[in-house]
Structure formats: C-alpha cells, structure tokens
Amino acid sequence: MEGWDRTTKSTLTQIPLLSVKAGPRDGSAWTQRLKEEYKALIAYTSMNKSNDNDWFRISATNPEGTHWAGKCWYVHNLLKYEFDLQFDIPVTYPATAPELELPQLDGKTQKMYRGGKICLTVHFKPLWAKNCPRFGIAHALCLGLAPWLAAEIPILVDSGMIKHKDDAASSIESS
Amino acid sequence: MEAELKNLLSDLHALEDSLRDPTHHSLIDKMRSRVERLSVMENSRVVQRVKIKDMSAEVVDSNPYSRLMALQRMGIVDNYERIREFSVAIVGIGGVGSVAAEMLTRCGIGRLLLYDYDKVELANMNRLFFRPEQAGMTKTDAAVQTLSDINPDVVLESYTLNITTVQGFETFMSSLNNKSFRPDKEGSGVDLVLSCVDNYEARMVVNQACNELSQTWMESGVSENAVSGHIQLLVPGETACFACAPPLVVASGVDERTLKREGVCAASLPTTMGVVAGLLVQNTLKYLLKFGNVTPYLGYNALKDFFPTMEMKPNPQCSNAACLEKQKEYALAKPARDAAARAKMEVEISLEPECLHEDNDWNISVVDDSDVQVSSTSSGALPEGLVFELPSADEFQKPSVSEETTNTVDDLEDLRRQLEALNAD
Ligand SMILES: [Zn+2]
Description:
The complex is a heterodimer of chains A (about 180) and B (about 425). With about 180 residues, chain A is α+β, with helices and mostly antiparallel strands. Chain A is globular and about 50 Å long. Chain A has 5 helices and 5 strands. By secondary structure, chain B is α/β, with parallel strands linked by helices. Chain B folds into 3 domains: about 1-45; about 55-85, no CATH class; about 85-255 and about 265-340, 3-Layer(aba) Sandwich (Rossmann fold), CATH 3.40.50. Chain B is about 40% helix and about 10% strand. Chain B is built from 12 helices and 9 strands. Chain B has helices at about 1-20, 25-45, 65-75, 95-105, 140-150, 165-175, 200-215, 270-290, 320-330, 335-350, 400-405, 410-425; strands at about 85-90, 110-115, 155-160, 190-195, 215-220, 230-235, 250, 295-300, 385-390. A 7-stranded mixed beta sheet of chain B has the order 3-2-1-4-5-6-8, sandwiched between helices. In chain B, strands 7-9 form a two-stranded antiparallel ribbon. Chain B starts with a helix and ends with a helix. The interface between A and B is large, with 46 and 44 residues. The site of zinc ion has 8 residues of chain B, from loops.
C-alpha cells in the first residue's frame, strides 16, 4: 500500500471486507452485495464517530441501491466546509469503482473530471483492481474521497475558490 | 430569413409608390440594393448538398464520392459502395470519437450511432471538430449538426446518456440491438462498436455490452499525458476481452517519476488524438471493407515514434462471465471454422499466379515478417514498449457459508435503517 498515509492505512484495514462479486444487474446476488455494502458503511461510520472523525453521510436514494447521495465535509483552519456528494453504482461494479461526484465543485479545480467527478490518485485504481471484489463503497470513500478532500480543500480555500458559508454571507452583506 | 427579406423588398416598393417626393427615391434604391446583397449572402450561407442515392465513380467536382470510389478502380477495395450498408456505433464523442465520426461521415458510412452525456466546452477547443459557437450544446447534438451538413447521406442517431448507469446501459444495449436500418443483418443491429471513451470504467461497460451481444468492437485510448495512445480489436470469444487482462498501455518511454502529475487530471493534444482517431478509422475501414490486415493491437508512442503491436488470446480464467461463455462458443465452432478456412485456402491456391517475386533485383528480403511478430497470451510477457496499467485482482478465497451466517443482522431493510440511524445524528 504505497502512497497512502498511516491514518488512511489503519482506517482502511478496520473496514469490513466484502465477498459477493455482484453488480446492479445481478439480481439476488446484488441484494447480497448490497447487504455487505451496508454492513461496511455502518462499521465505517460508527468507527469515524467513535474516533471523532465523522466526515460524511451517505444513503441510497432508490430501492435498487444504484444511486447514492449525501454530504461530506472537511475542517480546515477550524472551519467546516460541507459539500453534496453523489454517485451511481456502475453496471460493471465491483470490477470498476463508483465515480464519486461533488457537483458543487465542478469547474473549480483541475483535479476533477466533467460533472464534478473527482480525479483519483494514481494509487487508487490499482489498489481497487487488486482488491476486487473485497472493496466496496466504504473503501472508495476512505481511499478515494478522504485523501482528495484533504489535498484539495485547503488549496481551494487558500486560493479563494471556495468560501466558508458564514464568510460568503458576510461578504455579500458588505458588498 | 429569405421570406423576411422578400417582404422587406415589397415594403420598399410600396413606400416608393406612395412617396410623391422623388428626392427620396435614390435613398430607397440604395436600401433596395442593400437588401438584395443581404439575400445573396443568405443564399450562399445555407447551401446544403442534396442527398445522393447511389455512389458514383464519376470524377466531377460535384461528386463527393469520386476519390473514394477510385479505391475500387485501383484494386484496393473490392466494393466500396458496401460502406453504405454498415452501421458503426461510436461511444464517447470527445477528442477521438468526434474525429472518428467525421472521418466515417466523409467516407459515406451508412449509419452512425453517437453516445455521450457531456456538453461542448471552450476547454475542448484544443481538440479538433467542435467549434466555439457550439459551446453549451450536448456533444451528440453538436456532432449531428456538423456531420449532417458535411454528408446528409449518413443516417445519424444520437444518444445523450451515460452508459455506465443501469438505465443508460439498457438504452445502450437496446439501441445496439435495433435492426430497423438493415433488418436482414445477422447478430446485432451494428457492424462495429468503437470505444472512444476516456476512462477505464466506461471501457469496461462497452466490454460488458459487446461480450453479451457477441459484438466485435475496437477500443481506442490516449494516455492522460497526451503522448501515447493505442487501438485494439476485440472479438468476443476469439481475442482477449477488455477484462481478460489488465488494460495495456504504451509506456511513455520517459522516466515515470519525472512526469509531473500534481495539479491536473489530464493533458490533451489535437495531434495525438487525431493520430489515434486516424488509426482507429483506418482499422475500421479495413475491417468493414475487407482490405489489408486488420491490426489486433497497435500502440503509438509519440515521444519515440514507436508503434508496438501484439496479439492477445482470451483468458480462460477471465472474471467476465459473458466472456467465458463466448470463449466456449468459439471453441465449439472450431471444426466449422477450420473447414471454411481450408476451402478458402484451396480457392486461393488455384487462383495464385506461379510466383510473385521471380527475380529479386533489389535485394529486398521477402521473408514473411509475421514470423517475427511477438504473440503473447494474457499471462505471458509483454512486447517491448507495452505495460499493464492496472494489476490483476488478487486470488482470494470466498468465506465459507458458516462464517456468513454468523452475522447477526441479515435483512436489507434493517441494515438500511441502521445506517439511517447513524446518519441522523
Ligand atoms: Zn475476457
């Protein structure tokens, strides 16, 4: 696991691994996979809360569990920056990872593809491929989104591309 | 516009008649000539050629197909006009796909199916095909606009959707299966699928669809650093599928550590994309019109002007179930295939002239270079200049069933409620 910091590594190893190799077109096998996804997400969320490192909310928005939406946030200089988070489960899941989207940041950073899909590090895809089908949504958030937020949000804040919501309000008042 | 200008002219005429004072007439004349000039400009702007029923080989400056039909006269292609029977699906109308679409349109392809969910942006203007005034349009609509102007004979279908989503995939599959263009065609409704997408996820989806449909397709790609690319032919069951081995990429030939990746996702050059689109469509024409050798894999290293080639057999342990099924079907059809090949060879031998290279004045080696071509299975070593982009999935043992049942909760609704409870505070 070259290329990840110690915290990410130790967190990752505590998220339960999945075993069912099934995607959204695989009928009852997908239901089994979905159960495993929930278990991993429940474990990861609880772990974050007990470590005082709660940083996202995510739920399936349809009964099939193919579209997910929620929020994620990052604290920089004691201020909390919160963003909408969404993604689809691709038909070739889990051979390919879900493409995580932060639509509010679309066009604000180079580290993003069209539609607000975050640009993952060169380390993410190889690790995902190597661990198919054991990694799920929780692992994608831990390995993909968390390091992305940690790398990009400070730059976006410092360069003025994003403003804290209180700050943004006051700047509108003053102008 | 034309009608408006005509009305304006008749208004001017009426105005002239009603004016008693002739001093204003010269001004009205001036206005009239301006309107006439405008209508000439307007007419020259909207000239669009009419549809052509049959491709003609006649060399006149008004025939858009004369130079293509000349391929037939020169003996390169047996029957060029067959191109009008073919349907090609292009997935991804970006820097490679849009140029490929234009090339096929100019070649007079029968029908193009275009898939993309993106919009044209000014940031795309370093690439070919799209124009700045198309910014904001969907890529599919903008492509149809330009392509139908270039060649109204081509039947164009545009699909603005994301093929990786469950819904998008269903539409993708049913559109490939639709045979209304040529009801007597065997197999799916298209002759070839071209993957011109820019990411692994979408390529895996095209692979999935083509494996399920037993559809021959070609993959294309340009590296994120814009200095290498490749094309690959995939025939389900016969060649490696896209999931049989980790994706192959052309090594850039420079020390990877000196490549700066920080701060940007991807670079792009119109040159590399144009080269790859050209290679892709060249292979497409050879495949459809049956001339030359259709390449199984051709890489392009722009820094070293190096073009590696290779062949890949399917992996009997491929993780894709549809691929394994097609491999089985291909193996079962072997006796019939062998018999057909033997029959074809016998015909060719009887037609072959005595000797093509009676004397070799130029001292050129006539050794068949297929002998030295590197052929590799999915597990074997790769030829120089090619590397795997991703590792294979590790072998792993499924946990035994008993382990599975020890889980306390196993109801989906329960699990969903548990996560919602955690999400609530
Ligand atoms: Zn395969």
